[in-house]
């Protein structure tokens, strides 16, 4: 009997340390340098952050998503999930622990598909936390359907020349390099005709036209770039993986990325639930505390149950990834996690905001940021609808149509069969079964 819902005590101690460390030493960074976590460290920020990273390294918690050969601990996804739900409380925590998106996913594909030279040039400094990367796939006219991408790379002698537009390339403004998905052979299906390139951001022709912000961020202070690739010339060895391999690589990348977001979302949703409970116990109205009102109790109970369901689902999926060591085999459950994630965060954050009254909707509390975050989760790494389609297709694979007009579970026929099976016992029965 191998089912076990307990964390081994040794690792629990590590998690307890991480929890206190994040609350005491990392969350202050969120308040002092909000949204600056992807700006390369310098000056006072470096003086403040480097010792924290060193502490994490000494504890053996740096870049735990990677195997020992790549400088991580090789903890696997389940242990990572338990750690990530702590890190999810804070914007800066993933940076301090060396496991921030999108760099984790980018590191993973370079580790999988990169040549030794590419690993030395891009992966090593990425793992050391000394540079950032950007994943440049979505185009202004096409996101959810990559077969519509038109950005092209054409061979010219030993080089490739890239032309086209990309949209929502997160962190491109501060990234040292971009992983760009382009059409290399328009004459075959998109699944065979697209490739990935590693392009240093300072390559001539890489033009960041705008840095788009999410709601509430100021113009051109956002972190999602519209990029014009204008005759960007890269050598042949900038190709990541083989020619035509972009779809396979993208699936490897997005599988890991999606489940890591979900792990951190548990932490963020729990933070909202904690705030809701504290407020409910602290605020009095019409003769009793908010926690005594049945509506508010309903908010708390629903939120607790939603979070528990989601957490178990994420931990189970993480366990499956460790077991099969193959994202493809766990595709259905990763997609299902991705589908429920925005709703869980939205619902819990929204209720917590409501319980805080007017204060809840101000910029003195974090709830509207969480609600925006939930909306973002319904789009980033693919829209919810597309993931629902994936879940449904995968679920349907385990079923076959009935040959008959009547469903397999049609009671009259089943009853007839049951009566035939139990005929010996029914001989003396009176009336209908
Ligand atoms: C915060 C954030 C960060 C991002 N970071 C990156 C990044 O770093 N790199 C990158 O390349 N991209 C990034 N993206 C882009 C993201 O991957 C796309 O937004 C996403 O794939 C959807 O594409 P789209 O926005 O073009 O929407 P569209 O493809 O235009 O879809 C719009 C809507 O149409 C509906 N829809 C689409 N397809 C279907 C379908 N098959 N069935 C039913 N309904 C459908 C859905 O409601 C969907 O939301 C980011 C997005 C956000 C919000």
Describe the overall structure:
It is built from 15 helices and 10 strands. With about 425 residues, the protein is an alpha+beta fold. The strands form 3 sheets. The protein has a 4-stranded mixed β-sheet with strand order 1-4-5-8. It has a 4-stranded antiparallel β-sheet with strand order 2-3-7-6, with no helix packed on it. It is globular and about 90 Å long. The mean pLDDT is about 95. Bound molecules: flavin-adenine dinucleotide. Flavin-adenine dinucleotide binds next to strand 1, strand 3 and helix 13. Flavin-adenine dinucleotide (FAD) binds near residues 170 and 386. Its cofactor is FAD. It comes from Mycolicibacterium goodii.
| Alpha-beta classification | alpha+beta
- The coarse overall form would be globular
Characterize the biggest β-sheet.
4 strands, mixed
Write out the distinct hetero groups bound to the structure: flavin-adenine dinucleotide
Q: Radius of gyration over alpha carbons? A: 25 Å
Number of helices: 15
In round numbers, the mean pLDDT is 94
Chain oligomer state: single chain
Arrangement of strands in the largest sheet: 1-4-5-8
Secondary-structure element string? HHHHHHEEEEHEEEEHEEHHHHHHH
SSE arrangement:
Layout: H1 9-32, H2 43-58, H3 76-87, H4 93-96, H5 103-113, H6 116-127, E1 133-136, E2 152-156, E3 159-170, E4 177-183, H7 190-193, E5 194-200, E6 206-212, E7 224-235, E8 239-240, H8 246-282, E9 284-285, E10 288-289, H9 294-324, H10 331-355, H11 357-360, H12 367-377, H13 384-396, H14 411-421, H15 423-426
Parallel strand pairs: 1-4
Antiparallel strand pairs: 2-3, 3-7, 4-5, 5-8, 6-7, 9-10
Helix pairs in contact: 1-3, 3-8, 3-9, 5-6, 5-8, 8-9, 8-10, 9-10, 10-12, 10-13
The structure holds flavin-adenine dinucleotide.
């Amino acid at each position: 009997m191998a089912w076990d819902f307990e964390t081994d005590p040794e690792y629990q101690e590590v998690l307890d340390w991480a929890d206190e460390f994040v609350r005491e030493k990392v969350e202050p960074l969120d308040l002092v340098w909000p949204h600056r976590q992807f700006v390369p460290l310098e000056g006072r920020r470096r003086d403040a952050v480097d010792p924290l990273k060193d502490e994490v390294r000494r504890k053996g918690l740096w870049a735990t998503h990677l195997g020992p050969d790549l400088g991580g601990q090789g903890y696997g996804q389940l242990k990572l999930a338990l750690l990530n739900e702590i890190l999810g409380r804070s914007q800066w925590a993933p940076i301090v622990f060396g496991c921030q998106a999108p760099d984790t996913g980018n590191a993973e594909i370079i580790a999988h598909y990169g040549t030794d030279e590419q690993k030395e040039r891009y992966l090593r400094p990425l793992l050391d936390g000394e540079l950032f990367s950007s994943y440049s796939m979505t185009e202004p006219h096409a996101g959810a359907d990559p077969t519509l991408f038109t950005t092209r790379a054409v061979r010219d002698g030993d080089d490739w020349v890239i032309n086209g537009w990309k949209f929502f390339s997160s962190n491109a403004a501060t990234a040292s390099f971009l992983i760009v998905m382009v059409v290399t052979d328009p004459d075959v299906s998109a699944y065979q005709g697209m490739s990935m390139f590693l392009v240093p951001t300072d390559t001539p022709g890489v033009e960041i036209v705008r840095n788009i912000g999410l709601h509430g961020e100021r113009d051109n202070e956002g972190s999602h770039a519209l990029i014009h690739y204008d005759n960007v010339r890269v050598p042949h060895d900038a190709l990541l993986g083989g020619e035509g391999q972009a779809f396979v690589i993208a699936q490897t990348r997005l599988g890991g990325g999606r489940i890591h977001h979900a792990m951190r979302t548990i932490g963020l949703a729990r933070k909202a639930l904690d705030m809701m409970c504290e407020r409910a116990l602290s605020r009095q109205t019409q003769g009793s505390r908010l926690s005594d009102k049945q509506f508010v109790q309903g908010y708390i109970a629903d939120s607790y149950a939603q979070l528990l369901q989601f957490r178990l689902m994420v931990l189970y999926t993480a366990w499956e990834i460790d077991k099969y060591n193959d994202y493809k085999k766990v595709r259905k459950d990763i997609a299902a996690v991705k589908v429920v994630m925005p709703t869980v965060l939205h619902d819990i954050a929204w209720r917590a905001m409501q319980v805080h009254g007017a204060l809840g909707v101000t910029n003195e509390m974090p709830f509207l940021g969480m609600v925006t975050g939930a909306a973002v989760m319904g789009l980033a790494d693919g829209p919810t609808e597309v993931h629902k389609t994936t879940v449904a297709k995968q679920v349907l694979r385990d079923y076959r149509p009935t040959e008959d007009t009547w469903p397999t579970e049609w009671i009259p026929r089943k009853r007839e069969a049951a009566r035939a099976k139990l005929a010996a016992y029914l001989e003396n029965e009176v009336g209908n079964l």
